[in-house]
Amino acid sequence: MTALDLAWSSVGGDPALIPHVSTVVREGALEARLPVRELAGACVGACALAAAELGARRAGLTEVPGVRLDDGAIATAFVSERHLLVDGRAPVNFAPLSRFWRTADGWVRTHANYPHHRARLLAALKVAEEDPDAVGAALAERSAHEVEDAVYAAGGLAVALRSPEEWAAHEQAAEVARRPLVEHEQSATARARALPPLDGSPLLPAAGVRVLDLTRVIAGPVATRTLALLGADVLRVDAPQLPELPDQHADTGFGKRSATLDLAADRRAFEDLLAAADVVVTGYRPGALDRFGLSAQALAERHPGLIVAQLSAWGSYGPWRERRGFDSLVQVATGIAAIEGTAERPGALPAQALDHGTGYLLAAAVLRALTERQEEGAGRCVRLALARTARWLVNEVAPGPRGDSPYDTPDAWLGERDSGLGRLRYALSPVAFVDGPVDWARPPGVWGADPARWD
Questions:
Q1: Active-site residue among 355, 404, 411, 439?
Q2: 74, 44 in Cβ contact below 8 A?
Q3: Parallel, antiparallel, or unpaired: how do β-strands 414-419 and 405-406 relate?
């Protein structure tokens, strides 16, 4: 079974549609010891095929449009945050305290891009100022696992480097291994809001679909950015006291509107959004939103036709289910950093491929759920975890054929346009099918500047 076969089957796709996918394989795209290029192509391929299938169903086509994958487009999009320019300025993707550090017995990686995470890291280490030398000295005195436990107990993020064998012996890894790549649950069979037929060009499979985006960082925003490309009305909602990093918003905000709501104080406004939504995508720690009535079960009871898509770092199970996590940290815990590194220093994948891959696979699961809802009327809940995607990459994805064409430059897959944030250079979406869209209908706007209502 190829990686695309597995990705497509994981979202419930019909294997008879796989021949609709063609691929331009390029040498040099996402080169790594692990089969990153193959994973990336499978996730994007499943997403594009799910989009083409939904579009054909809604447009009354007798054939699903052909899907065109290009490793150049995929490799460019998987590092979209690195290609972003805002008025010629390149973003800083990792803060000074987000990096590998030597400990007394090995290595640890921290994540401190957000101010509140940075403050908790410093508090756990009893370091008064953001001084890398002082942080390094504090870490060098402790074991990696001691650092991991202390920083997480303080609400920060630090993960000890593990080998694949060490991770496989961990209780969380055992829980991850018991789960499928994509988890599915069907809710009650109440009829959902019917989506109207499509006509015209380009074919926008998600036109008229209302997506409430409660995600942050990369994976979730990549999924909802992709749904926006495909015509969905995507409204991202953040807490006013937790602004997104400006460059991260610029990279993943294409096609969306951005609003702020205090879920406790503005509950009525939020419930009005939920009542008219087709899809809710959440990317917070499992259980973090339950007190607002946003568990999958609570949402299904109040809105039976709703599609709920949930994303987490470690999964909604096991001893790490409530831990925060990011792609770079999942790579360190699951043995990927050890595989990609050397005897002297841990390494990393050529892209934040767990984030981007999981994002496209999440979008694919949502699109397939919409197709199934068109037929059956029932809502769905789908769940993905970066740690499960990591297991797929390390244990299940096989290397593919070598490419005949080189991947020399990303220029063919970059766009430029003006926006409320300035002049943007950005990576185009790799999700491509016959008569499908090639760019987003709108650039990102100012974070939190849109009203919290549907268009």
A1: 355
A2: yes
A3: unpaired
